[in-house]
Every structure is written in C-alpha cells, then in structure tokens.
Design goal:
Two copies of one chain form a homodimer.
Chain A lengths: L4 E2 L7 H11 L3 E5 L5 E5 H17 L7 E5 L4 H12 L3 E4 L6 H11 L3 E4 L4 H7 L8 E4 L10 E2 H6 L15 E7 L7 E6 H11 L12 E5 L10 H8 L2 E5 L4 H11 L3 E4 L1 H14 L8 E4 L6 H9 L3 E7 L6 E4 L11 H9 L9 E5 L14 E6 L4 E3 L14 E9 L5 E6 L4 E3 L2 E3 L1 H9 L4 E11 L3 E10 L7 H9 L10 E5 L12 H7 L5 H10 L1
Parallel strand pairs in A: 2-12, 4-5, 4-6, 5-9, 6-7, 7-8, 11-12, 11-13, 13-14, 14-15, 25-26
Antiparallel strand pairs in A: 2-3, 9-10, 15-16, 17-18, 18-20, 20-21, 22-23, 24-25
C-alpha cells in the first residue's frame, strides 16, 4: 500500500491566486482610497504584480521563511503584497498600526521583519519607529506621494521586474502569515499561519453556510487586512473568483456609495461599523444597494441591529473567531428548520454566535476542565480545535493547547442543542458574585437596549460579602438623556435580580483597545479603588 | 522553521461523519426502497451503525487497507457501509451490478475484496458469481428477506457490537475507496481514492458554484452510489449537514413523489433520467416540489431539457467528470455577468459543460501534445490535473498522467475565454474526414432537436476518399414518424455542410454500455462492413 494514487497537490496559497488569474482573471479588484478616488485592477493584474513583487523581494535578498511586514489599510496593492510575499516563500506579517509604539517595536523585533511595506498615511509613524526597528532593511511605500524623497515607491520597486516567475515550492505546512494578538496581559503573541491552514480556512469560508461566496458575489470587507486577515476574505475571494472591493475609508457615506456603485452583495464588519451605518442611513435616507449578506463579528451585535438589517432583506450572520482561529470559529448561517421559524425565532437564532463550519470543533468546560453539556444552559470556558486553530505561538517554547489539542479561547459560552454557540462573557470579564457567574456581556446588551445608551461596560468591583458585584458604566448618545431609574427598571426586566448592577456610572467615554474593543482592563484599573456607596447615592438621587 | 504551528488535523473521511453526527445529528437520511416503502434514520444513526460495522469488520478479521465491496443501490445502510468500511481503515469498493459476469469476476479478483455487502435484489447474481469470487470470505445482505437462509443480514451482523469504537487513525493519503471504470477496451481499471482526495473533493462540492449545499438543503442523487460515488454527494452531504434522500427506484413517479414529500431542493442525474421525468410530468401534470438546483452530467443535456427545467424556476448546472476525477471536473454555475445575460445567453452558457472549481485545472492539446488556446474555437484533447484526479490506477506499473501531472480524459473539448469547457466529442468517437474533425456529439445533438427523434448516434464509416464519413443512426420516439429529408434539412441548418451525414439509418434501438451510455464501439462493430450506397438509396426513397 498504496498500490495506486491520486495526485500530489500541496495546499499552498499560491494556488489561490493561480486559480483566480486563470479562471476569473478579468474579475475586478477595486481600491477605494482615503482621498475619495477609486482605482481598479483585476485578479490577473494582482497575480502579475505579485510575481513581480516576489522577484523584487528576491532581488532584495529576502529568503524563504523570512518575514515581510505590511502596515497598511485595505487596497489592491496590499492584496498584491500578500500574494507576493507568500509567493516567494516569505511570511506575511500584517501589523496593526493602532498598536502602541512599544508594542510596534516589540513585534517587529520578535518577528525579525526584513521588509516593511506601508501606506503614506503611516509615514510619520514609520519615521518615528525606524530607530526601533533594526531588523528592517527595506522600506517600501505603497502610495509614495509625488516628490517625496523617502523610501522607494511600490510601483517603482516592482517596475524593474517582468513577472516571469514561478512561485516558490515547498511543504504545505510552511508558514505563510504572521499576526500578533494584542493581548491584554504580557507581550503580544504571534500566530504563525501555514499555507495549508490558510487554504483549508479559505475553502471553508466560501461555503454556503459561512460566507457563501460565488463568482457573482461582490465582497467588501469593512475590517482591516491587519485584523485577523480581514476575516480571511482576501484568501477566500480568489477561490470563488468574486469581485473584491477594498476600502481605506470606512465612513458610512463612503461605504453606502461603494455598496451602490460597485454592486456589493457581501460585507463583513464589527458592530460599531453597522451602528454608524444604520445611523447614517436613518439620517440621510441612503440605502445599501444590492447588499444581501452581512457578517457581524468582533463583538456581539445588538438585537436591534440584526432586526434592522433583516428588515432590509439582508441575511445577517453573527460570527465569532479570533486571531488564533484564522479567524473563523463559528458563523450563524440558517439552520435546517429556518423556514419554519418565526421572525422572532430567527432573530433569536442569529443573536447567538452561530455554529462551526466543517473542520473546527467546540466544547465548554468548567474550572476543573470537565466538559459541560451542550444543553444551552451550562456555561463554561470555550475551547476550540481544528486545522486552522493555533497549536503553538511563534517562537513559543510550549504548545498553546492541551494534550487533546483544545485551545482555550478565554471566552465563556453556552453550546445549544441545535449546535449554536452563545458567548456569555470573556472569562476574565465574568463577574463572580457569591460563587456564581454574572455575564458582563449580557448586562451590557441589556443596557444597550435602553433608549439613549450608546455604549455600556460592566465590571466586577471587589465586595466584602459577595466577592464581586457589578458596576455598569454607561456612555449616553450625543444629546440624549438617560434616566438612571428607568435604566434600572429596564435591566430588572431583562436579567436576574441578583445580576443587577450595584451602581451605574455615567461617563463621557470608555477606554478602547487598539482593535476598537472596550478595554475592560483599563476600566478595572480606573475603578480599582471604587466603593459602591458613592454611586448608589448618585443613582438614588434621580 | 517552523517556529510556530497551526494544528495537525489529518484530512480523513471519518471527520465528515463525526462533524455530521456532532453538529447535524438529527438531520434525516431517508431511504426509499424499491417496494415503495420509506425508512428513516439520521446522521447520528448512520454514524453509530458505521462504528458498529467497523467493529464487525474487525471481528471478521478485516485489516486496515483491505477492500470491502458493496453491490447495492442507494439507501442508508449502503451509506452506513461506506463510513463503516473507511472508518476501520478499509477501502470501500463500490461494484457496478450492471457489469458483465467476466468483468465482475475480474474486478473482485483484482481488488482482492474480502467482504461483500449486497442488496437482496442482487442475490441471484451473487449466488452465480460466488464460485468466481474466491477472495470474498464474508457475505452480508443489506436487506435479508424474512426466512432466507443465505448469508447474514446487515442488522444481525452489526447487532453484536455496541458502537464504542474509535475510528482507525492513519495517514491522510491512505486509500479509502476503489471504483473501476468500465473501459471500452481492455480490463476495467481501478481508481483508488484517498482520504485526502475525497475530503478535498467534498469540501469543493458543497461550495456555491458547485452543488451549493447548505444545512437547509435536501439532496436526492438520482445516480447510483456505485457510479462515481453518486457524484460525491454521500461524502459532501455531511459537511453541509443537509438531509439526504436515497432511492433505490429512479422511476419518475417515485422521484416526483419524493421531491414533494421530502422537500427535495437539490438533485443530480444523467440526461436520460430527466428526459423520463419531463415526459412523465408533461403527461401527468405532476410537479417537482420545491426542487431548485439540478446538476446534469454523464452526457450532454439537450438544450430543450435545460430550457424546460429553467422555465420551472430551477437552476440547472451542467457538470462533467469521470471516475478518474472523483468525479467533479466542471460544473456550470452562474458566472459573474449572469444578471446581464438574456435567457437565451443563459441557456447557451448552461449548455456548455461548466467551469472548474478551485483545485482542478484543464487544458486542451492537439495530437502532438501542444497546448491549444482557450479561445472557444480550438478543439483538442481535454486534459485535467488536481488533487482529486487519478495519478496511477490501482496496481498499475505506471502513472496514468504525463510528467506534468496531466491526465488525458479521452474527451475532445474547447475551452472558452470565460472559463467554460465544451465537450465536442470523445477522442475515439470523433469522425476524421479529409484531415478535419467532425464532432459526433454535435451531429447527435442537432438530430435530437428534430421532432420525433428519441436517440441518435453518429459514427465514422471508412471512406476511400475522405478517410471517414459520418453515418447517423436514429431511434424514433414510440409512435412517431421522422421524415428523413426533413431531418436532413434540419441538420443542414445546424452544422457545416461537410459535416452532414452521408447516410441516416433508422433503427429500433441503439446498444448501451453498463453505465447506460450509447456504446459507439458496439455500433462501429455492427456497421464495420457498411457501405454508404445502400443507405443513400434509402434516404433518397423518401
């Protein structure tokens, strides 16, 4: 054995761009720039320029396995750089420009990046950081401004090369990408994606119950390419041969114009993006064009958002994942009994975080690591395993998973009998009161459903009797008034009585992380010495 | 390198059934039996019984890599046997019961099958063949009739086992399936599918531009599980977690009842199946229920069939493939510019054989092996390569592909600039006249468009001046008259003048192969001594 065989065909990401070039070569890749202009290329153009860039990297002395970094928003040249870097056997490191300078210095040094391709927008940051980035030998600016005497421009850099290049061969488990998580404790950790893991993730992503991408689709990710690979869309799109619209500008007006002008059918973004979009549309009467499928992830989508989008004929999928999971862990595609569900039941379903695509597997465990039932009631630490889940962080000494391959996500969730997963909290954010868990997320969601509430964050405050008790911090919508007593009564109708916050603080703004999420860590630091009596008096004053 | 890693997750077909059991356990698997009855199980039931069968195989002394054969129509027990055989590390060999006895003796001996699971329907055949099948030690009847004292029944065979079984582990390139092609020359050749090739094929198959299977889909393959794996559906369905309807009876009335009663949304079959279905519906006023997607393959679908189905709101995909390609090579999913096409242009598009999914690659070459342009005009030998294409036949001494991995399909085709492929002939059926090629298929399709023509076959007859000239053999529809002169005039409006057949012969029936295709080889033998003068006189008589 074997006495016969099927063909050897390594799972390399270069086959993605080869397929798109050969079978969907004329399908457009649109770049919408921050200055309002739009430029166009197609899969053939991206593939050709990626080969030229691979030649430029080799000419610059970059070797197989070397890290090539990007510091850029979404556009076709950034996409080209992905395939160019991986195509010559390099490892693409997408840097989040919102990281703090010390994090930026750390990750570039840790990654040992040899090349950085960046947007002119980030030139001041790059200039500031250069002294702290000793490993970088070559700086290339994607959109070098006229007359700028800094680094070489991308077009000029690849101009000397003809694209007559054969992609680097290699093992399918060779690394092709590197992305650092902006962890809330310790230094950022790098997830080293492999050709194989990336390809399998992309194949799963286009399937009907994940993104459902066909050749007719027009996809506009409203999530940066440096944020968990823009949820994998730049790798998945060439499989379908769909049109890709990449924008450096996420403002609602620009988005709506692109939806209409480019015929966008599929989009994906965090709740904040959709909050702004909905507000803009409500205000201006703009529309969403032919948009039909929206994936919302990053954090929980409020129920009202799901209802609003569905009322416009848009199928909404709630997704969950993380940098460590490439990122797709779950997506809320319609289940088998969808047609028999009422609209309310459908919204209930979509409000959960969805179900796993083929490949990944979930379980929940208690604090002792014992598996909990998938009954929709038990809530425990969420663990995941599968072909596109991290095994070991970059340069780590130890695996990030247990002996059975389970990666602990840091989320707390329930698994329902219908296969859907429901995040109830981050394990570090859960509020432990009297030996039971209070979900900070459910408290926040309940608060968000009250008129005038823009943002809400619940944290645990040390309490002599109960260990911890919840404090709710609320940001009001501009110009809105929020009655504390009314909010309290509203909450009382939504959560168990013992979950009700001991205090509500109205604040002007909440601290956010580099990826735009509320920083509970900063909030906890801010309220480290908080005592409940103060606020209760405040609430009582109403 | 590597200094980090994603998880090791071998591509084994057992992960398919594990996923379906865990995430879609309650989704139904319906068996429609030849006696008109229907029985039901679900993915959980199939998975459980497959584990019990794996235990039964081990108890019978079957070892990893051994071949386990089936001789059965489509039903849930057959499906169970697929996963049971592969699950214990065995190789599933699906035997086509329509093969001739000497072929049946040859392939079982060549495969060294150790176990045969069969339908009671084939018991007489099995009894006749037993003396010629010395390698088979264990016979199991899927549906043992009451009081029958022959071999053990499937239910009884697995009854002693509890399903507490862990699937065999192994390399992802281990074989999991074996299917013999009923070649027209020489002995049948075995294609040895691997876990990996089968899994990648299944992942591609559910994608929107192939079968488009979601959890909401209800799929009814009208193609036997012994015929190119029922086009891969039993492997693909568990990824989506869709409902599967398996029928041992393909009669139109039964099909229409199942479409309606089971809510079938996706189906697939050869043109003959749809010819009968359409005739039945036209006659009785039956309908197709909620059917929305139909894949037609095996041979070319007449244009009128595509138009009829489309007029009922059904999306039709023309597919092409072969046992050697797992089988999907191409599927005619809507292209990017679909919305802008007229209905006529859409039917034109669907009439071609479709385009490749991500993974496989096509090219056409001339008789010297030089690649021909993808211009929609050049026609040449069709070659294919990719992860689910054969490399080497079972027990063969040499590869079935050239040095670059190209497998010659034996088809003659054109590749269009839009990526679609159009079969123009089988390379051995093409009629070579005066140094040029005449497509026998195009002649036949033109003839099928004439009123009263049921079947048509064009073959080349030796000719002293032109090397070969076409003879067209025609079977009339029951009770229909076909005017030879009218048919000739009809053809003259459809094909080049020099393509027109030198003679038309009306026959009562045409010879068919074991897989239901017209046997051109038999036809050529029948007309080996044919001279044109005879027939021309006949045509002239009209």
């Amino acid at each position: 054995m074997p006495l016969g065989a099927m063909q050897h065909w390594p799972l390399r990401v270069t086959s993605l761009i080869d397929h798109a070039e050969r079978e969907h070569g004329g399908r457009e890749i649109v770049s919408a720039w921050a200055d309002g202009s739009v430029s166009r290329t197609d899969w053939r153009g991206v593939a050709h320029d990626a080969r030229r860039m691979a030649q430029a990297l080799e000419a610059a002395g970059v070797a197989k396995g070397d890290r090539v970094a990007t510091l850029a928003m979404n556009h076709a040249r950034h996409l080209t750089a992905w395939y160019g870097a991986c195509g010559m056997g390099g490892v693409l490191h997408t840097i989040n420009p919102r990281l703090f300078p010390d994090q930026l210095a750390y990750i570039v040094g840790h990654a040992e990046d040899r090349v950085l391709l960046y947007d002119a927008l980030f030139a001041p940051l790059v200039e500031r950081m250069k002294p702290h980035w000793p490993t970088i030998e070559t700086y290339v600016c994607f959109d070098l401004p006229e007359g700028w005497s800094g680094d070489v421009g991308f077009a000029e850099w690849i101009a000397a090369h003809d694209g007559d290049y054969v992609w680097a061969q290699g093992d399918e488990r060779d690394p092709c990408g590197l992305c650092y998580t902006s962890g809330t404790t310790g230094n950022p950790k790098g997830v080293l994606y492999e050709h194989r893991s990336t390809l399998l993730h992309a194949m799963a992503e286009i399937s009907p119950d994940v993104m459902g991408l066909s050749a007719r689709a027009v996809a506009l990710p409203i999530v940066p390419m440096f944020h968990a690979n823009a949820w994998g869309l730049p790798w998945a799109a060439p499989i379908a041969g769909c049109k890709l619209v990449l924008s450096a500008d996420y403002r609602p007006e620009r988005m709506c114009n692109l939806f209409r002008d480019e015929g966008v059918t599929h989009s994906a973004g965090v709740p904040t993006v959709w909050i702004e979009m909905i507000a803009y549309i409500e205000r201006t009467g703009a529309d969403l064009g032919p948009l039909k499928n929206v994936i919302i992830g990053g954090s929980a989508a409020p129920r009202a958002m799901i209802e609003w989008l569905r009322s416009r004929g848009i199928e909404v999928g709630h997704a969950w994942g993380m940098t460590e999971t490439s990122p797709i862990g779950t997506v809320g595609a319609p289940p088998a009994d969808w047609d028999g569900k009422s609209e309310g039941e459908r919204v209930d379903y979509v409000s959960r975080q969805g179900r796993v695509p083929f490949g990944v597997e979930l379980r929940i465990v208690d604090d002792e690591g014992l598996e909990l039932p998938r009954d929709g009631k038990a809530s425990g630490r969420l663990q995941i395993r599968g072909p596109w889940v991290v095994q070991r962080y970059f340069k780590a000494e130890e695996d990030a998973v247990d002996a059975d391959g389970w990666f602990d996500t840091g989320d707390v969730a329930a698994l329902h009998p219908d296969g859907t997963m429901q995040i109830t909290d981050r394990s570090k954010d859960v509020i432990k009161s009297g030996g039971e868990w209070i979900s900070s997320i459910e408290l926040e969601n309940a608060a968000l459903g009250f008129d005038g509430v823009l943002e809400a964050a619940a944290i645990g405050i040390a309490h002599p009797k109960w260990d911890e008790r919840p404090l709710l911090c609320v940001v009001r919508k501009p110009g809105a008034e929020v009655c504390p007593r009314g909010l309290r009564e509203h909450l009382a109708g939504q959560v168990a009585k013992w979950w009700l916050p001991d205090a509500i603080e109205f604040v002007d703004e909440l601290p956010h992380t580099a990826t735009g999420k509320i920083s509970k860590r900063t909030l906890r630091e801010r309220y480290a010495d908080y005592r409940f009596a103060d606020a209760e008096a405040m609430v009582g004053r109403d």
